[in-house]
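re the bet — no i am not wrong, look at it urself. input seq straight from the record:
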Amino acid sequence: MDPNETLKKIDQFLKERQSGDEVDLWCRDLIKWLNREGFEPNWEKYPLGTSYFKCRVIAETKRL
């Protein structure tokens, strides 16, 4: 998995104002990647994706 490519997809998806479950699946994939000690993506390069991802992390944590 390429975390930068995943974060880029999340960012572009949101910029295009699309809706669908795939963006949440990409977030879950990125969470799993990071939990397995994978390297972090360039958070600053994709601010909208980063913001959404951080919200999903909080939501996933509360769900558990």
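see?? The chain has one domain: 3-63. told u. also The two ends are 24 Å apart (CA to CA). so pay up
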